[in-house]
Design brief:
The complex is a heterodimer of chains A (733) and B (330). By secondary structure, chain A is of the alpha+beta class. Chain A is built from 19 helices and 30 strands. In chain A, helix 6 crosses helix 7, helix 9 runs parallel beside helix 18 and helix 16 crosses helix 18. The longest helix of chain A is centred in the C-terminal third of the chain and has 28 residues. Chain A is globular. Helix content of chain B is 28%, strand content 20%. In chain B, the strands form 3 sheets. Chain B has a 5-stranded antiparallel β-sheet with strand order 4-5-8-6-7. A 4-stranded antiparallel β-sheet of chain B has the order 9-10-11-12, sandwiched between helices. Chain B has a 3-stranded parallel β-sheet with strand order 1-3-2, with no helix packed on it. In chain B, helix 4 packs antiparallel against helix 9, helix 11 packs antiparallel against helix 12 and helix 12 packs across helix 13. Chain B starts with a strand and ends in a 9-residue tail after the last helix. Classes of the chains: A alpha+beta (733), B alpha+beta (330). The interface between A and B is large, with 44 and 40 residues. Bound molecules: flavin-adenine dinucleotide. The site of flavin-adenine dinucleotide has 32 residues of chain B, from strand 2, helix 2, helix 5, helix 6 and strand 8. Flavin-adenine dinucleotide binds next to strand 2, helix 2, helix 5, helix 6 and strand 8 of chain B.
C-alpha cells in the first residue's frame, strides 16, 4: 500500500524551496508561443465588427460590398436581421482575409442599419434603474439570534430596530466597487486549423481539457477529432473557460475555407465582450458594542451582471466577519453590457470592499484603533478554526507595517502641507481545494522522465509545480522532469479556476509519481535483495533508507525497466481524506497610503500581505503570485474601472490608452509573508491564485479613510472621487 | 485601416505638392503615435499619407542670440535632451512627465502639438463636436473642458507641450498652401475652438503644415510646468499648468500662464496673470492666482473636481517656477 503523503520540511529537497520557473526563460526571451503567436502557413486573418449601439435591433445587414473587397476571402454574419443587440461591441459579423488591411477594409464596407432602443447602463443608480424597469429582486437572507415570539409579522423589523438601538455605535453608509474588465494582455480568440476532418484549435484558454467537446458539437464531429492546444496564455483571470462563439466561428470558417483561420478580438472588442467583473453597491447599517464588536448588520445591495450574466453573489455579505444578527437584501440591475465573467476570486473582492469598509467606519466612529476592532471581531469569524490563524497573521502583518507606531485615529494624523497619511487593513478567505486531475508519468529505461497532464499554466507556475512534485518524489533535480501540459490529448485535468490547479496537479503528480516509484522500487529491491518498502529515492539514487551505500543510481535503476518505458497514469484524490491537499485559506492585508487633500491623489506607500496556503510547493512562485494579486488589487482600488456613458451606453475607455492601470511607480513597497507553521503545512497543498487579490480594495479604502477622516465610498479611489467626497464632507460639516 | 498611398518626400516643397486642399484626403505622418491609432479606428481615412520622416530640414534645433528654432520633426526625447532646455525648464518638465519612453522617442514636436483630442466621443466616432455638444453635455464628461466650453466644442486640448510653449511665448512657422508661403504666428493663435465638424482644432489648412516652433530667448524669465496626474502611466494628466515669469526685485513684472486639458484649446489664464503681476510669488499669492484662474470656470455635470485641480495646478506651477516648494505628493 502506497501512502500518499508529503515528506517533512526537513526531508524535502526541492518541495517548498524557491525555484525559478522552468518556463521563465522562453517567456522572457519571447520564444514562448502564445495562441496569438501561432502563425501557420496560409493563415487567414479574421476580425469582427462590433455594434456601435448599446441597445438596438438589427434592421438590415449588407455584406455584399465587404465580400468584394480585394483580399477578403469570407464574410460571415453573427447576427440576423431582427436580432436585438444588448451591448455596444456585440459582434455583428466577421470578415476573413489574406491581410489585416484587407480585413479592415472589408469591415468598413459592411453596411448595417439599426433601430436604436432605450439604453440603461447606470449600475449604481437604484432609482433610475427602477424608473427604467431594469431591476429584479436578488433574494436575501435574515439571521437573528432571537426566535420570533408568536407569529408577529413585524418581528424582523422590530428585532433589528431593537438591536440597533442597543448598539453603542451605528454606522450607516453606502459602499461600492465599480465594474472592471479582465484586461487580458492577450485577447480572447484562437487560431483554428481544420485538416482531413480534424480540428486543431490553438485557443487562449484556462481549460484545455474541457473545450474540445465544445468545439466539436457545432462542427458535427466528436471530441476525439479535436485537439485543443495552449502552451502559454496571456491572461485569463476567469474569463477564458469556454469556447466563445467567435472561436466556434473561426473553426467553422477554417473548415469552410480549407485553410487555418486566426480570430483574435482587437482591444476594443476584447474589453467590450471578453468579460468584466460585476459591480456592487451596498447600503449598509451596522451596529456594534462599545468595543467595536459587531452585533447587527443590515444591507441592501445592488449588483449588475450585464446582459445575462450573474451579478455579485449575495452570500459574501457580510464577509469573513459575520455577526450573529444580519439581514441582506439585494436588487439586480439589468444593464446594457456584455455578460460578466468570473474574475479572480469571484464575489469576494466585492464582498470584502463593500463590508470591511463599514467595519473600519465603526472603528472611526468609536475613535478606536482599526486593528483592535478587527481583532475583537475575530469572534465573528464563522469558521472557529480560522480565528487563531487570523490573529497570528494580523500580528505578523502589523509588525511588518509597523502599525502601532504609525497608527493615528481617523483624520487625526500629521499633515505635511496638504498631504496626510493613513493605515488600513482587511481580512480575506478562500477555498482553493484541488480539482480532479489525471497525470501520466513516463519513466524511460535511460532515466528520462516525462509527464503529461491536460492542464494549463496561466503564468502562475503550474509547469514548475509539476516538475517540483515529481523531482521531489523521484529524488531528482527539477530540470530532470520534462513537463507536458497544454493539450486536450493529455490525461484530463480540471479548468484553472477557483485556485484549484496547484492542488489538482500536485495531487495527481504525487499519486502518479509514487505509483510509478513503487513499481521501480520492486525491480531495484529484487536486484539488491532488500525489501521494496525499505527503499527511498533521494539525491539521484534509489537506496535503502538506513544504508545509503546500498542502492543504485537513478539511471541504473531505470535500466532495470528493460526495453520499454514505465507508464503510470493516476488520478489525484483531493477531498476530505487526502493528506496531500485540502481547502480553505485566509490572509491579512495592510496598506499605508498618502493622500493629497488638494488634488485627491492617493499614493501607495507600503502594502503588506500575510497569507496562509497550507503547504508551499514553490516559495518563489507563491510570492510572485501574491505580488501580482497586490498589483491587481492596487489597480481596482485606485485606477481601473469600466466607464459606461449613461446616455448612449457607450463603453468609453475600451482602449488601453484610456483604461487606467497602475505602473511600477504607483504601487509603493510590497511586503509578502507566507504563514506556514507546521499546523498549516500539515494541511497539504491549497491554491492561492485568487485569495490575495480580495483584500486590497477594502484595505486601501480603509487607509484612505484613516488618512482623510472621510470615507470615499466607491472604488476605485480616483482624484475625482476623493475630491468629491471631501467636498461633500465639508458641505455637511 | 483603409488602404492608402504612402508618400515619403525629401523636401518641404515636395510635402506641399503632395498635400491636398481637400480636408481628409491627405494626412501628415510624423511619429505616427496618434495618427496610426486614428487610422486603425478609421476615424481618419486618408487616401494618401504624407510622411515628414525624410525631410531633414525639419529635424534640426538651431539657436541664435534671440531665439531657438525647433524643427517639427525633432523627437520629444531629443528636444528634452538638448542643452537649450536649460533655459526652458517648463519644456523639459512637460516632456519628462510623459511616462513612456516609446512616446518620447517616437513622438515629435509637430505631432505632439497637432495630436487629436482624446475625447472619448470623438474616438467613438461621434465627431469632434460630439453630436453638436450633446454627447458631452448629457454624457460622461469627467475629462472634458471646464473653460471655453459654452460653444459646441467641449473636448479638452490634449497637448502636453502646448501650455509650456505658450507660457514661453513660442511661435509656430507654418508652410503652405503654395511653395514659398510661410506664416509665423503665436502658438496660442494657432489653436482655435472649432465651430463645426468641418473645422479642426487648429487653424491649419489641409495643405499646410507646421515646420518649426520658435522660442524667444527667455531673457531672465523662469518657467515651470506642473501636472496633476492620476498615476505614473502614460495617460494624460487630469490638468496641467505652465507658467513663465519675469521677476525682478522679488516682484513679478511679467507673467504668462497657460493650462492644458481644461479647454478646447490650451487656455491662457488672463485672470491668473493679472492676479500675480506686481506681487512677489509666495504661497498666498500663488494660491490667489490659482483662485483667480478658476473664477471663470464653467464646469460640466461631472467635472467640477477639475476646477479644484486647475486651481492647484496654477498655484504649484507658479511656486515651482519661483523655485519654491510646491507641496503635494513627492
Ligand atoms: C497610449 C498613448 C498615451 C499617450 N499619452 C500622452 C500624454 O500623456 N501626453 C501627451 O501629450 N501625449 C500623449 N500621447 C500622445 C503622443 O504624445 C502624441 O501622440 C505624439 O506626441 C504625437 O506625435 P507624433 O509625431 O507621433 O504624431 P503623429 O501621430 O504622426 O501625428 C499626430 C497628428 O498631428 C498631425 N501632424 C503631425 N505633424 C504635423 C506637422 N508638422 N504639421 C501639421 N500636422 C502634423 C498628424 O497629421 C496627426 O493628425 C499618448 C499617445 C498614446 C498612443
Amino acid at each position: 500500500m502506497v501512502e500518499y503523503v508529503w515528506p517533512s520540511k526537513e526531508d524535502s529537497s526541492v518541495l517548498g524551496k524557491s525555484i525559478d520557473k522552468i518556463d521563465g526563460v522562453p517567456k522572457c526571451t519571447g520564444t514562448a508561443k502564445y495562441s496569438y503567436d501561432i502563425n501557420p502557413d496560409k493563415v487567414a486573418i479574421a476580425r469582427a465588427l462590433g455594434c456601435p449601439h448599446a441597445h438596438a435591433k438589427l434592421k438590415s445587414l449588407d455584406l455584399s460590398k465587404a465580400e468584394k473587397v480585394p483580399g477578403v476571402v469570407a464574410v460571415s454574419a453573427m447576427k440576423k436581421v431582427g436580432d436585438e443587440i444588448q451591448w455596444q461591441g456585440d459582434l455583428i459579423a466577421v470578415v476573413v482575409g489574406d491581410t489585416e488591411g484587407a480585413v479592415a477594409e472589408g469591415l468598413d464596407a459592411i453596411v448595417a442599419e439599426y433601430e436604436q432602443l432605450d439604453v440603461f447602463v447606470e449600475d449604481a443608480n437604484l432609482e433610475a434603474a427602477e424608473a427604467a424597469g431594469r431591476t429584479a429582486k436578488a433574494g436575501g437572507k435574515v439571521q437573528l439570534e432571537k426566535e420570533p415570539d408568536g407569529d408577529d409579522p413585524d418581528f424582523e423589523e422590530k428585532e433589528l430596530a431593537r438591536l440597533f438601538k442597543e448598539s453603542a455605535a451605528v454606522v450607516e453608509g453606502r459602499y461600492g466597487i465599480a465594474a472592471i474588465t479582465h484586461m487580458c494582455l492577450e485577447p480572447h480568440g484562437s487560431t483554428c486549423e481544420w485538416k482531413d476532418g480534424k480540428l486543431t484549435a490553438h485557443l487562449s484558454t484556462q481549460n484545455v481539457s474541457g473545450t474540445a467537446g465544445q468545439f466539436a458539437a457545432p462542427l458535427k464531429v466528436t471530441a476525439d477529432d479535436v485537439t485543443v492546444h495552449c502552451d502559454y496564455i496571456g491572461g485569463g483571470f476567469g474569463s477564458k473557460f469556454a469556447v466563445d462563439r467567435w472561436d466556434s466561428l473561426a473553426a467553422q470558417l477554417s473548415k469552410d475555407l480549407g485553410r487555418p483561420v486566426r480570430l483574435m478580438l482587437d482591444r476594443d472588442l476584447e474589453l467590450k465582450n471578453g468579460g468584466a467583473r460585476p459591480s456592487g453597491y451596498a447600503e449598509s447599517k451596522v451596529g456594534a458594542d462599545k468595543d467595536g464588536v459587531i452585533k447587527v448588520w443590515d444591507t441592501h445591495f445592488l449588483s449588475a451582471g450585464g446582459f445575462g450574466g450573474a451579478p455579485v453573489n449575495q452570500s459574501v455579505i457580510p464577509y469573513v466577519i459575520v455577526p450573529p444578527n444580519y439581514r441582506r437584501r439585494g436588487t439586480n440591475v439589468k444593464i446594457n453590457t456584455a455578460p460578466v465573467r468570473a474574475w479572480r476570486a469571484p464575489n469576494h473582492p466585492q464582498g470584502c470592499a463593500m463590508t470591511q469598509t463599514a467595519i473600519d467606519d465603526i472603528a472611526a466612529k468609536l475613535g478606536l484603533d482599526s486593528y483592535d476592532v478587527f481583532e475583537r471581531n475575530l469572534v465573528n469569524v464563522e469558521d472557529k478554526d480560522r480565528r487563531g490563524v487570523y490573529a497570528e497573521e494580523m500580528k505578523i502583518a502589523a509588525k511588518l507595517i509597523d502599525w502601532k507606531a504609525k497608527w493615528h485615529p481617523h483624520g487625526k494624523g500629521d499633515k505635511k502641507g496638504s498631504v496626510v497619511s493613513g493605515l488600513g487593513m482587511a481580512l480575506h478567505t478562500w477555498g482553493g481545494g484541488g480539482h480532479p486531475s489525471t497525470c501520466m508519468v513516463k519513466i524511460h529505461p535511460d532515466g528520462g522522465v516525462e509527464t503529461f497532464i491536460g492542464s494549463q499554466d496561466l503564468g502562475t507556475g503550474t509547469r514548475t509545480v509539476i516538475a517540483i512534485v515529481l523531482a521531489e518524489t523521484f529524488g531528482l533535480p527539477v530540470e530532470a522532469i520534462k513537463v507536458n501540459i497544454g493539450s486536450s490529448k493529455y490525461p484530463a485535468s480540471g479548468p484553472s479556476g477557483g485556485s484549484t490547479t496547484v492542488g489538482g496537479v500536485s495531487e495527481s503528480s504525487r499519486h502518479a509519481g509514487l505509483d510509478a516509484l513503487v513499481q521501480l522500487n520492486e525491480k531495484v529491491a529484487s536486484k539488491l535483495g532488500v525489501p521494496a518498502e525499505s527503499l527511498v529515492a533521494k539525491g539521484g539514487r534509489i537506496h535503502a533508507k538506513d544504508d545509503a551505500e546500498k542502492g543504485l543510481s537513478w539511471k541504473e535503476a531505470c535500466s532495470l525497466l528493460g526495453m520499454s518505458p514505465l507508464e503510470v497514469t493516476s488520478k489525484g484524490a483531493p477531498g476530505r481524506n487526502s493528506k496531500l491537499s485540502s481547502s480553505g485559506v485566509g490572509g491579512v492585508q495592510m496598506a499605508e497610503v498618502e493622500v493629497d487633500r488638494e488634488t485627491g491623489q492617493v499614493k501607495m506607500k507600503k502594502f503588506v500581505t500575510v497569507q496562509d496556503m497550507g503547504l508551499v510547493v514553490n516559495h518563489k512562485t507563491a510570492v510572485s503570485q501574491i505580488y501580482g494579486a497586490m498589483v491587481m488589487g492596487v489597480a481596482y482600488a485606485l485606477f481601473e474601472e469600466r466607464l459606461m456613458d449613461p446616455r448612449t451606453g457607450a463603453f468609453l475607455n475600451s482602449e488601453i490608452a484610456d483604461y487606467r492601470l497602475p505602473r511600477l511607480g504607483d504601487i509603493g513597497e510590497f511586503v509578502v509573508e507566507i504563514y506556514e507553521p507546521e499546523s498549516e503545512r500539515a494541511r497539504g497543498v491549497i491554491g492561492l491564485g485568487e485569495p490575495p487579490v480580495i483584500g486590497p480594495g477594502a484595505a486601501i479604502s480603509n487607509a484612505v479613510a484613516n488618512a482623510l477622516g472621510v470615507r470615499v465610498p466607491v472604488l476605485p479611489l480616483t482624484p475625482k472621487r476623493v475630491l468629491d467626497s471631501l467636498q461633500l464632507a465639508a458641505r455637511n460639516a | 485601416m483603409k488602404a492608402f498611398e504612402y508618400a515619403s518626400p525629401r523636401t518641404e516643397r515636395e510635402v506641399l505638392e503632395l498635400l491636398s486642399a481637400d480636408r481628409g484626403h491627405t494626412e501628415i505622418l510624423a511619429g505616427g503615435t496618434d495618427l496610426i491609432g486614428l487610422m486603425k479606428k478609421m476615424i481618419v481615412k486618408p487616401d494618401r499619407v504624407v510622411s515628414l520622416n525624410r525631410v531633414d530640414s525639419l529635424k534640426t534645433i538651431d539657436a541664435n542670440s534671440t531665439a531657438v528654432h525647433v524643427g517639427a520633426m525633432v523627437t520629444l526625447e531629443d528636444l528634452a535632451d538638448n542643452p537649450i532646455c536649460e533655459f526652458y525648464p517648463a519644456i523639459r518638465q512637460a516632456i519628462g512627465e510623459m511616462a513612456s519612453q516609446q512616446l518620447r522617442a517616437q513622438g515629435t514636436v509637430g505631432g505632439e502639438l497637432c495630436q487629436r483630442p482624446r475625447c472619448w466621443f470623438f474616438r467613438d466616432k461621434r465627431g469632434l463636436l460630439a453630436e453638436r455638444g450633446r454627447a458631452v453635455e448629457e454624457g460622461d464628461n469627467r475629462f472634458h473642458a471646464i473653460f471655453g466650453n459654452r460653444g459646441l466644442a467641449k473636448f479638452s486640448a490634449p497637448s502636453r507641450l502646448a501650455p509650456a510653449l505658450i507660457a514661453l511665448d513660442a511661435r509656430v512657422r507654418i508652410l503652405g498652401p503654395n511653395p514659398g508661403d510661410e506664416t509665423l504666428m503665436p502658438l496660442e493663435v494657432f489653436y482655435r475652438t472649432p465651430k463645426s465638424e468641418r473645422e479642426r482644432e487648429h487653424t491649419l489648412e489641409p495643405n499646410q503644415f507646421v515646420s518649426q516652433v520658435i522660442l524667444p530667448h527667455p531673457e531672465g524669465r523662469v518657467s515651470a510646468s506642473y501636472e496633476v496626474r492620476h498615476g505614473m502611466g502614460p495617460e494624460y494628466p487630469l490638468v496641467a499648468a505652465a507658467a513663465s515669469v519675469l521677476v525682478t526685485g522679488g516682484i513679478v513684472r511679467e507673467a504668462r500662464i497657460a493650462l492644458g486639458q481644461v479647454a478646447p484649446t490650451p487656455w491662457i489664464s488672463r485672470e491668473a496673470i493679472d492676479a500675480i503681476v506686481g506681487l512677489p510669488i509666495n504661497y498666498e499669492t500663488a494660491e490667489a492666482a490659482g483662485q483667480a484662474a478658476v473664477s471663470v470656470a464653467s464646469p460640466l455635470s461631472h467635472n467640477e473636481y477639475k476646477v479644484q485641480l486647475a486651481k492647484v495646478a496654477v498655484k504649484r506651477a507658479l511656486l515651482k517656477a519661483a523655485g519654491l516648494e510646491t507641496g503635494g505628493l513627492s
